Fold this protein.
Amino acid sequence: MTAADFIPVLIQILLAIGLGGAILTASVIFGQRARRNRIKDTPYECGMPPAGPGRTRYSVKFYVTAMLFILFDIEVVFLIPWILSYREFLVNGIPIIGPIAVFFGIFILGLIYELKKGAIQWEK
Amino acid sequence: MELVPLLLKILYAAIMLVVVLTIAGYSVLIERKVSAYQHGRIGPNRTTTPFIRPIPVIGPLLTRLGIIQLPADGLKFLFKEDFTPPYVNRPFFWAAPLIAFVPSLAVIAVIPFGQYTSPLTGEMIPLVLAPMDLGVIFVLAIGSLSVYGVVLAGWGSNSKYSFLGGIRSSAQMISYELSLGLSIFPVFLWMNAPGSDAGLSLSSVVEAQNTMWFLITCPLSAFLFLVGIFAETNRLPFDMAESETDLVGGFHTEYSSFKFGLFFVGEYGAMAVGSALFVLLFLGGWNFLPFLANPWPAGWIGSVLSVLWFLVKVVGMITFFVLIRWTLPRYRFDQVMKLGWTVLLPLAIANLIVNAAAVAIHDLW
């Protein structure tokens, strides 16, 4: 593929952004106007007066999940070149099964370690 | 680049956009109608306009089907008060609906939707705006950007329900992305035979399924991909983003008017793209049926038929999404995470290893 083949993708993205912007603008222009008051300007909490700040403290597990995702996702991305060349290598007798077995071994060991550590145990 | 081909490309892109928006809009109608029938109700059946009502036979039928419901809902979104609460973080609050809306419409450029068989040479050309050899990776990469819309909406709203909904669903979406990515690899492992230049393109997946669907040869991959798509599009039973019973509206609690509408359209657009992706990867795309040769004749009639057959499959998948919504109960958040990391991810890895071993046995003996 040359750079010119990507032009339709660029056009599509720009059109989507343009359409979204146009819809937001139209909504501002055509929307009703209504008066504000003190109650309307409070965050929605089922009719109760809001208690405390909007962004409360939250579980550190969310950070752990995000970090684990980055680690495992990079391992998944590293598999893509292997998928494209695996059968070619097999037929031509280039050793591929051993190296990829080591890679999968590291992948699975990491997963087992993470699960044993309780990184995604939310109940406790 | 010349001016005329460029304008033509812009026209095609605009047509694609309109078609996908229409599918997304009418899948709301499908959702409401199918939900209603599952509950023993009728669903939207009285919205009409003065131009349609008086037509004999067809007018009342269209009214009863709720065809006018979509433009009516759109106009209602447009004319409601566009309220920006004073306590929000304005840049994030305004950017979030746009970021949730754009990815699902941007990826349609690389999705093939039919074929054209030349009557002279018999050569088959897939109909697609940008025939990218990285198709699947592009769709997954851009499609997963919509998680930023959810996170920014939750963070920017500065409200407890929005915040909890935002971080919960972002944790869910990134967790299921792993098994989603791993689940499609066996398909491409089988496809990239020595000497083939199939790569990761979506049109070669459809070509490879000419008489045999990958749903039959890789059923576990299909199942894992389906679950991943449900989680990525925040559909029930993985409805962490909204979860009305404990979070009111989730990340879009504070949104009103068409800012909320953009989230809505983006969600249904993602559902339509996810359905199209599942059809392309596992249900044979526009190929007729497994074990049967394509009946599409050469020339434009055949391409119209193939596009229509593809659309029938996509609409069937959307209906399946809705049927599942009213069949399975919602998971609790810790159950969602546990299912993703301890069941689906090991299953996806095992599936990939088994397929790799099968490929090795197949190729070496």
